[in-house]
From TrEMBL:
Keyword Zinc-finger: no
Protein name: DHA2 family efflux MFS transporter permease subunit
Localisation: Cell membrane
Keywords: Cell membrane, Membrane, Transmembrane, Transmembrane helix, Transport
Family listed: Belongs to the major facilitator superfamily. EmrB family.
Regions that span the bilayer: 7-28, 48-69, 76-99, 105-127, 134-154, 166-186, 198-219, 231-249, 269-293, 305-322, 334-352, 487-505
Membrane topology value: Multi-pass membrane protein
Top-level division of the source organism's lineage: Bacteria
Main location: membrane
Keyword Ubl conjugation: no
Domain Major facilitator superfamily (MFS) profile: 11-510
Length: 526
């Protein structure tokens, strides 16, 4: 039953706060990775697990939110998720080691995975059917503002306080959301009373966790551990194969799957997941690489990094509702997807032309392209994914779509880490090949540096060592910058590869009833 007056206002505040908090935490840490690495004595490549572990937890929990809500009752599950998110946020901030932080970040992701989809469903039920487009609009603003405010808020906190405070800031929000949930969110009739009728697919859940967790470790650590020369990598590679193959077999053969994989029998849905995976890869990788690159090479502060992302991202506040209305009116998602893919291709190659001297406003046009690409892809992809499904299969289809997007993001971050490490080594080797005494430009630069240091220290031998060290630092910096630029181009190649697959997709004109059912499923499943 729809809420009224103050109760509805409190539900809006509660659900939007929880959703924004979850989304904010997906991006708030990106601007603090350098500070975390320094504080915890870890490399940038290892500290990326702080981002990846959260994404992995989301991948595992998102497709199970509907099942868990039915089992525990939606209000109980929602309340428990808020508490879990708040408690794990405290332990993230209190962590003294990298892997302790990664563990609690994973637990935070388990709690956060429910906040977004369940918040949207609760908000949807608080409005009469005729007013639900208003609810969708309100929630859409939250979806955009969360990731937008994350880097800016994270940058401000890191610059004026400590990186630990980006986690502690969640605690008062969680306390307020807990109180408001207890007071204002009502239980649905029969909520939490289906436990005796629900069969839990424990093997499916275990196999999903085993497969995804093992695969992600192999992707993240394979390069640094020399791949299959490492016994750990070999064992976890086998675990990934066993887990993922076993999970697929289990979900296709059991009568009560935790994730309904049988909808992959629809060609349109199967093809759509390829686009969703690549879209997630592009979104997460570009948002991950940019803050690390501009702080490490261009000298941006965390706050400057966050602020440089706000202005272009605010375009999404305008675009998402517009595209949403067009999808609700029955527009085919294919033209939007085609434009979004082409924009992302352009964005990757355009970003590959950046220079170390660029300031935050110089990156503005590049970030605008990123936002345009995301806006043109995300919502149309959900509509495309369910285009060939039966109405009763919409929730499963949308949940799987969200899971695949998060999985693409986790894969993209792992890819970026490994690629940057390899590409930087290759670029360094290429640059060092020019640093010989046969190169007059190198000799001139070296002698100039030696003379400069010698004039300050009076020690020619020491000045020579300092000059070589300075040049080595410049080469390493340039090598990493070239590697980051190459990463953007690699992302473009993924989008180029999937573009021809658009020719294999077909969509039929949906009826008003089907459009309404898809909107309801999106609300229930995120």
């Amino acid at each position: 039953m729809a809420a009224k007056g103050l109760a509805r206002a409190m539900i809006v505040i509660t659900t939007i706060s929880a959703a924004v908090m979850e989304l904010l935490d997906t991006t708030i840490v990106n601007v603090a990775l350098n500070q975390m690495a320094g504080s915890l004595g870890a490399t940038i490549e290892d500290v990326a697990w702080v981002v990846t572990s959260y994404a992995i937890a989301n991948v595992i929990i998102i497709p199970m939110t509907g099942f868990l809500g039915d089992y525990f009752g939606r209000k109980t599950y929602y309340l428990g998720s808020i508490l879990l998110f708040g408690i794990s946020s405290y332990f993230c901030g209190a962590s003294h080691g990298l892997w302790e932080l990664v563990f609690w970040r994973f637990i935070q992701g388990v709690g956060g995975g429910a906040l977004l989809s369940t918040s949207q469903a609760i908000l949807f039920d608080a409005f009469e059917p005729k007013d639900r487009p208003i609810a969708s609009g309100i929630f859409g603003m939250g979806i955009i503002l969360g990731p937008t405010l994350g880097p800016a808020l994270g940058g401000y906190i890191v610059e004026h306080f400590t990186w630990q405070d980006i986690f502690f800031v969640n605690i008062p929000i969680c306390i307020a959301a807990t109180i408001l949930t207890i007071l204002y969110i009502e239980r649905k009739e029969g909520e939490g009373q289906k436990k005796d009728k629900i069969i839990i697919d424990y093997p499916g859940i275990f196999l999903l966790m085993l497969g995804i967790g093992s695969l992600q470790y192999v992707l993240e650590k394979g390069e640094s551990d020399d791949w299959f020369e490492s016994r750990t990598i070999v064992i976890l590679s086998l675990s990934a194969v066993v887990g993922l193959v076993g999970f697929v077999w289990r979900e296709l053969t059991t009568e009560h799957p935790v994730v309904d994989l049988k909808i992959f029998r629809y060609k349109v849905f199967g093809l759509s997941t390829i686009f969703t995976f690549v879209a997630g890869l592009g979104l997460f990788t570009s948002v991950f690489v940019y803050p690390v690159m501009v702080q490490r090479i261009n000298g941006f502060t965390p706050l400057e990094t966050g602020l440089s992302l706000i202005a272009p991202t605010m375009l999404g506040v305008i675009l998402f509702p517009v595209i949403g209305r067009r999808m609700a009116a029955g527009d085919s998602p294919l033209p939007y997807m085609a434009i979004g893919i082409l924009i992302f291709v352009f964005f990757g190659f355009y970003s590959g032309t950046a220079t170390p001297e660029m300031g935050k406003w110089d990156f503005f046009p590049m970030q605008v392209c990123r936002v345009l690409g995301v806006a043109m892809l995300q919502m149309p992809l959900i509509n495309q994914a369910v285009a060939g499904l039966q109405q009763r299969e919409y929730p499963a289809g949308i949940a799987l779509t969200n899971m695949i997007r998060q999985l693409g993001g986790a894969f993209g971050i792992a890819l970026a880490n490994n690629y940057v490490t390899n590409a930087a080594a290759q670029h360094r080797s290429d640059l060092m090949a020019n640093m010989t005494m046969d190169n007059p430009l190198f000799v001139q630069r070296l002698n100039g540096s030696i003379a400069n240091f010698a004039s300050k220290t009076g020690d020619y031998f020491g000045a020579t060592k300092m000059a070589y060290a300075q040049l080595e630092g410049l080469v390493a910096k340039q090598a990493y910058y070239l590697a980051y630029l190459d990463t953007y181009r690699v992302v473009s190649l993924f989008f180029i590869a999937i573009f021809p697959l658009l020719l294999l997709l077909r969509t039929k004109k949906k009826t008003k009833e089907e459009i309404a059912a898809a909107a309801k499923a999106a609300a229930d499943s995120h």
